[in-house]
Amino acid sequence: DIQLTQSPSSLSASVGDRVTITCRASQGIGSYLAWSQQKPGKAPELLIYDASTLQSGVPSRFSGSGSGTDFTLTISSLQPEDVATYFCQQVHSYPITFGPGTKVDF
Amino acid sequence: EVQLVESGGGLVQPGGSLRLSCVGSGFILSDYYMDWVRQAPGKGLEWLGRTKHKPERYVTEYAASVQGRFTISRDESQSSLFLQMNSLKTDDTAVYYCVKGGGPHGPSDFWGQGTQVTVSS
After folding, report:
1. Those residues with Cβ within 8 angstroms of residue B67's Cβ, 6 or more apart along the chain or in another chain
2. B111 lies within 8 A of chain A by CB
């Protein structure tokens, strides 16, 4: 199985800060990585797929990069509504796996 | 507008069974891969299984943790997805999400609101 690790596990930032979250895969997955956001008490929502493609309707302050084993989610200017937990997901091979999540708050 | 509405969750005793349903609207279910994903209290996301779309004859892949106990099925006439859960354990307690996927290598791109399953005596 492909294991995904995320760092940091949590972070505190201020409005307007640039935030970077890293996801590392235990083996190469090409660009088959997605990022989702889960706000407290809500279902997750897809932000980015294919490592860097922004899902329709997602603000442009979110961006993704990387390929192979190392990936990054960046929030260019953190907004109050971005308080959430962020998960990466690999869809390269079965079983599909998720990272453990990164909690972002103020 | 895409919508996914799960139902069927509740309290069940260890060893029992439960069948979850998910009704999709705003898209053609047979055109898409569909997933079940769960989230135990205070924990992360666990993928349970994926049923491929009609061109791939709805072939289904499962996580090892539920292989042989859980079964995913569809009823395209009702735009519905199902998760039959047998031999339930206390560790199966979680919120269960029905999720729309894309195609091969597609992410889980739209999530239902989830249904709570509690396994307890």
Report:
1. none
2. yes
**Which chain B residue is nearest to residue A95, measuring alpha carbons?**
B63
pLDDT digits (tens, 9 = 90+) for B25-51: 999 999 999 999 999 999 999 999 999
Task: For residue A94, give Cα distances in angstroms to A2, A32, A39, B38, B63.
Answer: 8, 12, 27, 16, 8
pLDDT digits (tens, 9 = 90+) for B39-84: 999 999 999 999 999 999 999 999 999 999 999 999 998 999 999 9
Identity of the amino acid at B68: G
- Give chain A positions within 8 Å (CB) of B109: 46, 49, 55
Whether A53 and A60 have beta carbons less than 8 Å apart is answered as no
CA distance B119 to A70: 38
- Cβ of A91 within 8 Å of Cβ of B106? The answer is yes
**Choosing among B65, B96, B108, B113, which should be mutated to test the A contact, i.e. which has the most A CBs within 10 A?**
B108
A36-66: b (≥16 Cβ within 10 Å) or e: bbbeeeebbbbbbbbbbebbeebeeebbbeb
Sign of CA dihedral A79, A81, A86, A92: negative
Best B22, B32, B38, B47 member to test A by mutation, with max A CBs in 10 Å, is B47
